[in-house]
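In the previous chapter we treated chains in isolation. Here, by contrast, the input contains two separate entities that must be folded as one system, with a combined length of 620 residues.
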Amino acid sequence: MQETVDTPQAAPAPAAEPNRRAGAAAFRPSLARRARRALAPLPWLAPALALIAFVVLWPVWEMFQTSRQHINSYGFNLGDYGWKNYSTLFADPNLGSVMVRTVLWVFAIVAITVLISLGLAQLLNRGFPGRKLVRWALIAPWAASVMMTAIVFRWMLDPNNGVVNVFLHQIGVVHDYNGSQASWLGDPTAALWWMIAVAVFVSVPFTTYALLAGLTSIPADVYEAARMDGAGKWRTYRAITFPLLRPALLVAVLINLMNVFNSFPIIWTMTGGGPDYQTSTSTVYMYALKQFNIGESGALSVVNFGVVILIVLVFLRANRSALKEG
Amino acid sequence: MAAVTVAATPPQDQDRVARTRQKKPPTLRTVLVCAVAYLVALIFVLPYLEMIVTALRPQAELRDRDYFPHHLTFANFTNIWSTGLGTNLAVSLEVAVGSTVLVLLVAIPAAYYTSRRKFRGRGVFLILVLVTQMFQPTSLIVGIYQEFTNTVHVNSTLALILVNAGFNLAFAIWILNAYFGAIPKELEEAAMVDGTSRVGAMFRVIIPLALPGIVTALIFTFIAAWNEFITALTLTNTDSSEPLTVKMNSFIGQYSTDWQHLFAASVIATIPVIILFAFIEGKVVSGLTAGSVK
């Protein structure tokens, strides 16, 4: 009976039911019966489908529409605009640097997050007193609103009295309060690295937990066998732990890619993307454009959406191969 | 097939027993591991401690260059209600409760049916749901804005309830699907033989048994809607209709940012959520990764 209990993962592969299908062919049910059978799931699924259509699919359509409309800064729709919004976007002098920054933003955060999380997952997979407490502490940035976490960091980096500056002053790194050195968020490069740090801070908990789940699913006897074969610690990690962790790692990386690419509250709260868009990623720039040129913003959101679709496709493939490998 | 059976067992909150537990007296190694782990724990709670400390600072000591104030005051927490933040807190609560109720109403039947019946389009439905989770409101914000300002005219609270419910539906459906799927069919068949309808069996047998999953979906949706920022920032335009996250964002950047009240409000908004999250911590990963990581 347990085998027939189906799971979401099995869903992508259309479940073949030879018995039932053969039976159906033999009986040749009437059209009315077939229709009834096809419609049977509807009462159960219709509310979910309606909600998805209304708040997910409709906006996708609206977004494409907007990118093709001429809408002035007062919000009046002046009609069809062809591909003009796209040519405006691609001629936008800010676009190049925003895109380069987006790539740096995404890769820096995902890479640093994964490296830290691999270490932390190993650490939390050990037994030591107070382990439960450490796990709870790690939850905080995950559960708290990212926007509120960003506000606290902004406050801690305050040039006049932020605790980061108080500490750096004590150890002699920062010399003058309120000086240019203490105004971390006023300098585009320093601001970007601080914000990358905050993004890593809020991404590490989920990633660590996902990898920890992967680690605990590795059966103990595999390690036992490796130990009997005389494999050392590093070799065991490289030959056993890491390969078996790969499905979990892949999914965690993809979810992180999506979250980090769509990350908005950190930059919006800490610098607003400024000065002069110098700390904007493409998501933040899209939002900034929305205030005065929604058509161009629409074009950029379609471009961004292309990236999102790409990540989704890889994610779906990864889910399927993770299933097979597992 | 192995993965299927693994994923079919519901995500349990078993405390994962460490593989390499040492029985000897604490070695230097254990001490070292502890030290690193405690340091990491401290780093991760530090910003939230600073949040609490600032909320407890008296006005006169707000800008002092030290880690701890000389006096502590709870006045910021009591004064906060006169700043109008109470209204925004109420909006946040309305949005979070509304989204949670809507998600459960919509997700329970869908998850139940997909876990019990094999039907044409089942796989497509589950993938569609999974994709909605990946999309996130941020990537569709221009479309959401256009839809709700030009075409659909509902008040912003209702709009936020709908959007939050729509984008958090996936988590609820996938985690409930796993829970429902792990309940033996015989149990509800027995109930149905006794004359209960399928709907009746769902309410009397399945829902009580899947309660941990339902509670997980409930807490997760509540927190996600409570913390949501970009949609709320986009769809609300009056002070009294803004949820707390948006109101707080408009606080900062003003000439004299009212930091103590800001942090008093964020303590109220953050600490309960962290505690709630601790209850579902063990189950969230499997829901978010749609069971591919277990």
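Chain B has 13 helices and no strands. Chain B has two domains: 30-73, 86-288. Compare these points with the single-chain example from earlier in the chapter.
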